């Protein structure tokens, strides 16, 4: 089968003597996008039609530089084939022939030497065999055929045909040969064949040390980086992906303490970076890659340099780049007017530390100023809000503005004793006192959808808790968010911390923001369940505060009051059905069925136009039942709910634990013992007795405002206000003590005496 496949896939060589190829006049060339201008932003890479993938020597070869990294190659082939099958035109510029040939020749030499020595000298001298130095061109000649056969076999698994093309400098500098090469490549792409291109290392002369990239029309093919760049421009490719063994381009040599990966590189920044050592294999280095990338960019081809050797990302690095994700370094000719999101985060962290060091009264002043500015700039805010409402249905800010100002003033009052509050004070030993105090978490990333009232609420809580804040709002509220952010920054300016709150207005994808694990300490999503789930999946290295579902239960016990049941069930379901704290499942004790209470519940729900879904057990009691529920783990978010029957309070608890989301669950009963057991047993963030599930709200809890409701088991849980944005640190005040002082031979003993929190630490310390 492999031989049959090979006979169908052409192997073409363009070297000193050019072979005749099929004329493109037999078929019309595919029309690529209008060439001449590269993509300005990563998000545009999804539009790339013609793509060149350059595989560096470090990507293709094993760590011992003798043989190929087969697993890595297989994952790369899979990605290229997938993109090819999507209708894109893929080309590969590959290294690896020398390494493959070196492995092959070493094997042949060892086998030959072992046979000769066995015949002439005996087995005892086999251990003295040494390998001669292998010449690179001979290795390339021996490895080319095997390398191509391997590619063909791998691509065959995806029903994709390949063709090999070997080139030298002459093929680009001789006009006729360049036209032949261009014609051949276009014909292969027209036939949906993946060309695999390499320099003909078996005949190519060694690279000239002083040869360099020259202008737009001339580029010296001295390595596969320059070959890929020249080929991409020659073929008018939309994108060049250069894979190596580094993450991308750094602002200083990788491995140094201050080295930072550059997400985007602009031609004007070339003088501000330094280069490290070259790759462990190959003849190029990062400097050669950057020069080749800039040459291609100038020729109209977008470029991304990324790591193709990392085991965690190799399997999707190419597809991630094409999808516009933040992988490696993206080369762009269009420099944004404002700072990058990474720069914004650094600015926020620096200003946030200053914010945390302010006096509590100063942070309160900032929040009071925000509240006043919301009132003073009411007309500007409403004007911006109306612009947004013309585009999409949004929350009208006119009614919420006054309420927000009141809420902000409440936060200002509560912020007086937030940061730096002593939670615990212990005298560890004489003249050794320990404190646990509250401190800000650090940099918060809040991602919210189309509710602009979220911005001032979260900003006030961040200021009160001394946290830096990065805000990413929905584009449908862009005008309102912009003016509200200006209000926040104007208030912050009164104490010189304007940059502590940043609004991300660039084209950053939410998934890309979630990858800034070294810069962001906590992500808080505010929006739909789908948004929260997407962020939880994307943020692998950053904690996410929130809940993806609000499957809240109300359990009606057989000892419940009729009046309380009707009021609580109506409010829990009908007050705001889309809220995360709205009832989704009504659990009814078996003895309540066929009673006036149950009839009144059903009548009330029908009056409120609530669609009822029957749980499996409830459906079994009915001759003509409502539509049976598809899943007992459903958040309807509308005037719909599920009704299910249970035999006891314990069975209700078991049902909640199995199908609930640990958000808010309610029991309605007049039996205090039953209620207390329910409150103790249910493991949810909020558990209520004879109260509506809608009380699970920061404002109703008296928190002033909330950043969300958390169902997590650690840190904050339930409605999260100011306290949930704080963590703690330990402060130890000593007088020259060492750990050795408390050893068996030491002179000091532990006391571990708890001190009153209100007691101030004095300068006078008791001597031993």
TrEMBL record:
Subunit structure: Can form homodimers/multimers.
Main location group: mitochondrion
EC number: 2.7.2.11, 1.2.1.41
Lineage: Eukaryota, Metazoa, Chordata, Craniata, Vertebrata
InterPro entries listed in its UniProt record: AceGlu_kinase-like_sf, Ald_DH/histidinol_DH, Ald_DH_C, Ald_DH_N, Aldehyde_DH_dom, Asp/Glu/Uridylate_kinase, G-glutamylP_reductase_CS, G5K_ProBA
Source organism of this protein record: Astyanax mexicanus (Blind cave fish)
Tagged with keyword Metal-binding: no
Reactions catalysed, as given in the entry: L-glutamate 5-semialdehyde + phosphate + NADP(+) = L-glutamyl 5-phosphate + NADPH + H(+); L-glutamate + ATP = L-glutamyl 5-phosphate + ADP
GO cellular component, one term: mitochondrial matrix
Domain Aspartate/glutamate/uridylate kinase: 49-307
Family: In the N-terminal section; belongs to the glutamate 5-kinase family.
GO annotation terms (biological process): L-proline biosynthetic process
Alphabetic keyword roster: Amino-acid biosynthesis, ATP-binding, Kinase, Mitochondrion, Multifunctional enzyme, NADP, Nucleotide-binding, Oxidoreductase, Proline biosynthesis, Transferase
Role: Bifunctional enzyme that converts glutamate to glutamate 5-semialdehyde, an intermediate in the biosynthesis of proline, ornithine and arginine.
Protein name in UniProt: Delta-1-pyrroline-5-carboxylate synthase
Subcellular location: Mitochondrion matrix
Ranges of residues in domain Aldehyde dehydrogenase: 340-595
One Gene Ontology MF term: glutamate-5-semialdehyde dehydrogenase activity
């Amino acid at each position: 089968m492999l031989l049959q496949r090979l006979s169908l896939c052409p192997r073409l060589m363009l070297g000193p003597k050019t072979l005749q190829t099929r004329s493109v006049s037999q078929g019309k060339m595919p029309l690529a996008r209008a060439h001449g201008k590269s993509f300005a932003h990563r998000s545009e890479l999804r539009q790339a039609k013609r793509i060149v993938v350059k595989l560096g020597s470090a990507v293709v070869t094993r760590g011992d530089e003798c043989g190929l990294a087969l697993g890595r190659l297989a994952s790369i082939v899979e990605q290229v084939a997938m993109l090819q099958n999507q209708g894109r035109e893929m080309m590969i510029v590959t290294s690896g022939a020398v390494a493959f040939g070196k492995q092959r020749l070493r094997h042949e030499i060892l086998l030959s030497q072992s046979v000769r020595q066995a015949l002439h000298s005996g087995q005892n001298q086999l251990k003295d065999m040494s390998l001669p130095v292998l010449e690179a061109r001979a290795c390339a000649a021996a490895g080319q055929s095997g390398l191509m056969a391997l590619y063909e076999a791998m691509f065959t698994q995806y029903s994709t045909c390949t063709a090999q093309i070997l080139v030298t400098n002459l093929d680009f500098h001789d006009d006729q040969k360049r036209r032949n090469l261009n014609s051949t490549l276009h014909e292969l792409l027209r036939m949906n064949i993946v060309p695999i291109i390499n320099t003909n290392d078996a005949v190519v002369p060694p690279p000239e040390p002083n040869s360099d990239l020259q202008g737009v029309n001339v580029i010296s093919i001295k390595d596969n980086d320059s070959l890929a760049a020249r080929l991409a421009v020659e073929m008018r490719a939309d994108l060049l992906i250069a894979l190596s063994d580094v993450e991308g381009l750094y602002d200083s040599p990788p491995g140094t303490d201050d080295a930072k990966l550059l997400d985007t590189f602009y031609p004007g920044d070339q003088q501000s970076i330094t280069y490290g050592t070259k790759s462990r294999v190959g003849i190029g280095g990062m400097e050669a890659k950057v020069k080749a990338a800039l040459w291609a960019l100038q020729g109209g081809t977008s470029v991304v340099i990324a790591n193709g050797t990392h085991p965690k990302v190799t399997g999707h690095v190419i597809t991630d780049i094409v999808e516009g994700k933040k992988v490696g370094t993206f080369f762009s000719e269009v420099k944004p007017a404002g700072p990058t999101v990474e720069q914004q985060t650094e600015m926020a962290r620096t200003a946030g530390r200053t914010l945390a060091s302010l006096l509590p009264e100063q942070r309160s002043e900032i929040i009071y100023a925000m509240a006043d500015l919301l009132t003073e700039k009411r007309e500007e805010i409403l004007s911006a809000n109306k612009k947004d409402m013309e585009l999409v249905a949004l929350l009208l800010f006119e009614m919420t503005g006054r309420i927000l100002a009141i809420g902000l003033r409440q936060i200002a009052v509560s912020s007086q004793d937030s940061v730096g509050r002593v939670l615990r004070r212990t005298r560890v030993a004489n003249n050794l006192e320990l404190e646990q105090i509250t401190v800000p978490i650090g940099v918060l990333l809040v991602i919210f959808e189309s509710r602009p009232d979220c911005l001032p609420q979260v900003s006030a809580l961040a200021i009160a808790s001394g946290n830096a804040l990065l805000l990413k709002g929905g584009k449908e509220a862009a005008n309102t968010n912009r003016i509200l952010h200006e209000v926040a920054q104007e208030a912050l300016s009164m104490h010189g911390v304007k940059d502590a709150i940043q609004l991300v207005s660039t084209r950053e994808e939410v998934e890309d923001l979630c990858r800034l694990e070294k810069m962001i300490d906590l992500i808080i999503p505010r929006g739909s369940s789908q948004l929260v789930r997407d962020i939880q999946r994307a943020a692998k290295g950053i904690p996410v505060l929130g809940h993806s579902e609000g499957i809240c239960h109300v359990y009606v016990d057989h000892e419940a009051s009729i009046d309380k049941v009707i009021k609580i069930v109506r409010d829990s379901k009908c007050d705001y059905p889309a809220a995360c704290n709205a009832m989704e499942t009504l659990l009814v004790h078996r003895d309540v069925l066929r009673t006036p209470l149950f009839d009144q519940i059903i009548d009330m729900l029908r009056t409120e136009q609530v669609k009822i879904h029957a749980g499996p057990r409830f459906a079994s009691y009915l001759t003509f039942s409502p539509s049976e529920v598809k899943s007992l783990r459903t958040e309807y978010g509308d005037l719909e709910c599920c009704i299910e029957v249970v035999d006891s309070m314990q069975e209700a608890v078991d049902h909640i634990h199995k199908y609930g989301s640990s958000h808010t669950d309610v029991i309605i009963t007049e039996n205090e013992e039953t209620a207390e057991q329910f409150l103790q047993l249910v493991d949810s963030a909020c558990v209520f007795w004879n109260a509506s599930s809608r009380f699970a709200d920061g404002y109703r809890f008296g928190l002033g405002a909330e950043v969300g409701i958390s169902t997590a088991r650690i840190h904050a849980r339930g409605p999260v206000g100011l306290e949930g944005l704080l963590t703690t640190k330990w402060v130890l005040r000593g007088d020259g003590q060492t750990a050795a002082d408390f050893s068996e031979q030491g002179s000091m003993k532990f006391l571990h005496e708890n001190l009153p929190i209100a007691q101030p630490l004095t300068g006078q310390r008791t001597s031993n």
